[in-house]
Amino acid sequence: MGNAILHISDLHFVLDKKERQNKTRFDNNFQSKFIESLKNIKNDTIKYLVVTGDVTDTSAVKEYEKAFSFLNQLVTDLKIDKKNVIICPGNHDVSWTELVKVAENEEIEDSKLYTKQAEKFTRFTKFYFDFFGEIKTTFDVNAAIFDEIIDNDDKIVLLAVNTCFRESNQDKDHIGFINQESFEKELSNINFKVQYKDYGKILAMHHNPKDLSSEKNHNLDNWKDLNKDIIGYPFIVLCGHIHGADGEGTIKYDGNIIFYLSTGSLTKNNIDNTFNIYNNLQNESIAVLYYALQDKENPEKYFWQHLTEKKAVKEPKYRPAQNILLHKPDELITLLENVSETDKQDLDRKLNNPEVQQINANLKRIDKGIMDFIKERNLFKSGHFHWKNEFRSHGFIDINNLVSHKDSLEVITKLFYNEICNKFNEIFEDTILIAAGIECNIIGARLSALLDCGYSFIPEPTKEKDFSEIEKTINSENYKKIVLLKDIVFTAEHSKELLATINIDNKEVWVFSLFYCGKKELKENIFSDYTNVNFVSICDDIEINQCDYSGKGCLDKCPIYKNKLETIYDEC
Amino acid sequence: MNLIFSTMLYSKIIQENTLYILLHAEQVYQNFRLFNDKLSYFTSELTRDTIERVGNKIKQINDIRSIIIDCYELDDNRNSFSELSAITNYCIENQINISLIRVSESLYGKLQMHKLKTDDYGNLKESQKRIDNISYFNLFSDVVINIDSFDDNIYNLYSNTLLQKKLFAEDRVVEKQYSESSNVILPKYLNIKRFIEDKEISFIGLYLLCKKAIKKKLIPDLKVDDRPIIVFPSITASYLASIFAKIACCDIAYRDHIGPKNKIYRTIQKGVFKESEKHLIICDVVCMGTEIQITKNIIEHEGAKVEGVLSIIEVKVTDKTPNNKVISLFILNKENNNGIDYQIKTNF
């Protein structure tokens, strides 16, 4: 028995005869030829089936019945266990008819129609349950990851991702979109990096995450916003939607790679690539075979053959370099027979280490967020805040209070730690944490005890005249990565002043800030004048307006200050 | 999320090919990763991951002939014998003398340490000693160590390590030879920033400072709700305060900032020192006492109390007993200043 993956997509079962004749090939002859052909060329080698969406053309009940019949035949003839099948919904599998019914019967704004997840997936859900029967009994319409296959023999994890969270019958909703909160929460629960660190990881979804087209509805809108680091690199995304093959690695920092593999539509005319087969799952790389329909003009002689051109052959990496196993599993069992009961218990305890589990559970659980402390202790002040000429705002967060109390300080340290772990894959002795100012030195001190990295601190630039020369020195020359800890980033001018005092040439720089209080739309490009600076903020919930009056006599111009409405601080 | 916790030894002191490890300090720092604001110095449970980390790190240290693992102040454990025996086995295989000292009766039982006396697990020799009327076990593979006054030995060992590091006296540029807080000239500077950047001395140092403060009753047991608040006068001391407050399970209070120059910023911070509360000032160096006096004045101006002062280094400029109770990790005096040549001058 082999362990290859058969990847098909965009089946577009359609009832309309005209549509079938002109654009889509899906008569009974085509179906049986396809299955027969697969049996001939890949008999007993396909273990997994991945269908990346658009099983129907209009989400009509009859179309789903046809799709059910075909897929059932396929898995039966190829002897694929249904527990090894993933079927993702595509945009064509969302029922507009059901959404129209909702709009007719409820008072709902058009812009909110997409939120009717249960209704829009009603027909897909029924098809899903019909197909899987008792093997898969849930399809959570709100979940970003609605199904998973974890195979410990092949050491692979296959995750099914719903990219149709925003899809509805409204024009603006024809975009690929993943429920971000659910995606990140579910991935955190799976604990990839520890439990499945040497597994091959594959995500299956309908939309192609790469920006392939200027047309928005071709792309997955919020892929770039998702925290994918939780999965652990490298991994592969299998997708469809664009009716063509496209595979390419994306290099992230530290050489981390996501490989996108799409297959063309199985049934649409004029498409060369009709399905893919992935072999050699046990290796670090998998072999990709793109199949094309041959003898297209002669339905009686349909057959499929994989493309052999050099450019079509790809072997993307999808698992980290594997550890060398000293013993095969069966040898281990033999060895275990000869050890004492106490040692067996020790080994068992080691595998189920409660301390590690406790830390994992503790890190995931954040009982209180920063905003809760701010609300409870009234730490946000509105009014004119004037800190020398460099910083004028109409609002202030009392970070002094947050870092002074042990409960909020623990939460803040945990949040910083989580963010740092999310961005860095391993212990980083080539990295130095640099805390900016007193507040961050308090947080940074705790982090320095948790992480194997260098540590130093520098005063905030607005206060440096008051600090000794010794405190301004920093030892960063021997480090390749710099992590600058900030309490608040507003316009990032302070951070840039600090970066100017450190040699950051040819170094990877990360600015981690507790708050980002500037304009939301400016955040993404706030360090765009650097090529090597990355920015991460923990809380973006408070936006503070800058006082627009500057220069000589500025205080007399500011209406809040001039009229003595509310002044938080006015020492220049 | 990949957990990337430190693998370092927080309490490592090496003296003449002997590695000394304070297991309780290792556990206190291990507990940092649980992000629990109630876990502190007062923990007495030794966890398996602490022994495992210590064992892994020991294997990476070269040129060690003997290892002393001090188990003082630990009473509880959830059956981590295999991790402990891995350490003793490693030592015996590599001909390193191993000593497990000041093991409480409770820990001895819970760790099943009697097995270490058998041929299978090292054949260690055992002795018993009473400290403060409590019986402690000691297990040795070779030389029996005198554990009388062992706490004093630890402070001496640590002081020697500090002196070897030569972190504290740096020549300064002539035109900047002045003190930040008082009208004296300091040709050399005690560089506590380098102390902080060298984790191998700062973490164990702050643990030992807390141990001293507890012994002097400046830090009460966890059962006492009325805990002192840690105050610091400078950015350097803010690091010390953060680690110390975590170990001692205390809150922090500060004005941004009150030293070394006597300037108070941020009127919004009025009232951070509460009338009813007790405060401990932590600073990097106590020399003439000016910085402490400024801090104390501000705290007392708001009606709050100062219970004592903690410092990394205290320079004994006079033999007079200071007004405030000062607890220091290292005292620089006439006797030990020979190799350092720290000087305080005036223009007079």
What is the fold's blueprint, element by element?
The complex is a heterodimer of chains A (572) and B (348).
Chain A: E1 4-8, H1 17-22, H2 28-42, E2 46-52, H3 61-77, E3 85-88, H4 96-105, H5 117-120, H6 122-132, E4 145-151, E5 156-161, H7 180-190, H8 192-195, E6 200-204, E7 235-239, E8 246-251, E9 257-262, E10 273-279, E11 287-294, E12 303-306, H9 329-337, H10 341-351, H11 354-364, H12 370-377, E13 380-381, E14 384-387, E15 391-393, E16 396-397, H13 399-404, H14 406-423, E17 431-436, H15 437-450, E18 454-458, H16 469-472, E19 481-489, H17 493-501, E20 508-516, H18 520-523, E21 533-539, H19 554-557, H20 559-562, E22 567-569
Parallel strand pairs in A: 1-2, 2-3, 5-6, 6-7, 7-9, 14-22, 17-18, 17-19, 19-20, 20-21
Antiparallel strand pairs in A: 1-10, 4-5, 8-9, 10-11, 11-12, 13-16, 14-15
Helix pairs in contact in A: 2-3, 3-6, 14-15
Chain B: E1 13-15, E2 18-22, H1 23-30, E3 45-46, H2 48-58, E4 66-70, E5 76-77, H3 81-93, E6 97-104, H4 105-110, E7 125-131, E8 134-140, H5 150-165, E9 169-171, E10 188-190, H6 192-197, H7 199-215, E11 229-231, H8 235-248, E12 252-253, E13 278-286, H9 290-301, E14 305-315, E15 326-332
Parallel strand pairs in B: 2-4, 3-5, 4-6, 11-12, 11-13, 13-14, 14-15
Antiparallel strand pairs in B: 1-2, 6-8, 7-8, 9-10
Helix pairs in contact in B: 1-2, 2-3, 7-8
> Number of helical segments of chain B?
9
Query: Uncertain segments of chain A of ≥5 residues (pLDDT<50)?
Result: 322-336
Task: Provide a count of the helices of chain A.
Answer: 20
CATH topology description of the largest domain in chain A: Purple Acid Phosphatase, chain A, domain 2
Oligomer: heterodimer
Q: Alpha-carbon distance between the termini of chain A?
A: 77 Å
User: Which shape of chain A, going by the Cα principal axes?
Assistant: elongated
In N-to-C order, the SSE pattern of chain B is EEHEHEEHEHEEHEEHHEHEEHEE
Biggest sheet, spatial arrangement of strands of chain B: 1-2-4-6-8-7
Q: Do you know the CATH topology of the largest domain in chain B?
A: Rossmann fold
Spans where pLDDT lies below 50 across 5 or more residues of chain B: 259-265
Largest inter-chain contact set: A-B, 74 and 60 residues
Q: What is the name of the CATH class of the largest domain in chain B?
A: Alpha Beta
